[in-house]
Amino acid sequence: MTAAAYEPEVGGDSLLSVRDLVVEFGGKGRPTFRAVDGVSFDVKPGQTIGLVGESGCGKSVTSLAIMGLLPARGNKVAGSATFDGTDLLTLDQRELSDRRGRDIAMIFQDPLSSLNPVVPIGVQVAEVMQRHQGLKKAQAMQESRILLDRVGIPDPARRLKEYPHQLSGGMRQRALIAMALACKPRLLIADEPTTALDVTIQAQILEVLRELVVDSGTSLIMITHDLGVVAGLCDEVNVMYAGRIVESASRHEIFAHPEHPYTHGLLGSIPRLDGSREGALHAIPGSVADNIPWTAGCAFAPRCTQATEICRDQSPVLEQDPTGTPGHTLRCHHPILPGTDPQS
């Protein structure tokens, strides 16, 4: 591509502005591994942003770095994550604890390991409000019942007294959502919230998130490996591979005019029920471990059907796509233009 390297502007109306986020693991005599490599994106008030990619692409590490939840040792975090004018990466753990739950909340992938197995659900939801809003226990428990009802848990008064193992997977995930929304946070991060659930419960959980975001005006970062999950939920989509964003655009633009071969691969692996695609699904060859360093070339080159010598020798920069709509950015030497066959 010949366009100039894309430099996102720091928007004054952004609730969260992540710039050049880098996370490295290792060091002190051990080899370093860069899990997140210069990631930048914005989240505006009331907006839903998607971070999409296979397991190991860095999307969950990105969210943990923003939340300050990475281990205290064995990693190095650089860049900035400015939330409402404050760089979260510069705060100490006490200051971050004050913001987590109150201003920023997170829904984790596995509710069974995220919930305390020996504490009733109602107490766990109430503790968040007692900690950040100073509510008395009785008032917090009453609010907990309202929250459980709001996220669609049947008979919430009874569920308040039950333990996590007594709830189904779908209800445990709803309880986590209730905990995350207890203090009406301005930003919600959902890390693969539907992965362990069957498709019917997945749809219900996504509908709950959609309604809550619309009703409360909360911003949402949806982390997932499935572009189908973000199809009816996200306003903007960032596709990640090997720690970097390789394509970014609005939801409609990504689905209508995907141009990065990796994005095409993710879309090609989604089953279709409308009969518009015949034959077997087109899986992306190899695994996420089959890559080369971004400093040497395009990390996706070993798996890419479009790769040439330049892809293995020169690292592509994130550029504004000259053929797409404004805001459609791409990191690729050989994008798949609309109307061409990515399998040819």
From TrEMBL:
Molecular-function GO term, any one: ATP binding
Cellular component aspect of the GO annotation: plasma membrane
Pfam families: ABC_tran (PF00005), oligo_HPY (PF08352)
GO terms classed as biological process: peptide transport
Topology of the protein relative to the lipid bilayer: Peripheral membrane protein
InterPro entries reported in the protein's UniProt record: AAA+_ATPase, ABC_Ni/Peptide_Import, ABC_transporter-like_ATP-bd, ABC_transporter-like_CS, Oligopep_ABC_C, P-loop_NTPase
Family as reported in the entry's similarity comment: Belongs to the ABC transporter superfamily.
NCBIfam families: oligo_HPY
Protein name: ABC transporter ATP-binding protein
Taxonomy, superkingdom: Bacteria
CDD domains: ABC_NikE_OppD_transporters
Localization, UniProt: Cell membrane
PROSITE patterns: ABC_TRANSPORTER_1, ABC_TRANSPORTER_2
Disordered: region residues: 315-344
Record's keyword terms, sorted: ATP-binding, Cell membrane, Membrane, Nucleotide-binding, Transport
PANTHER family, per the entry: D,D-DIPEPTIDE TRANSPORT ATP-BINDING PROTEIN DDPD-RELATED, OLIGOPEPTIDE TRANSPORT ATP-BINDING PROTEIN APPD
Organism: Flexivirga aerilata
Every ABC transporter domain range: 16-267
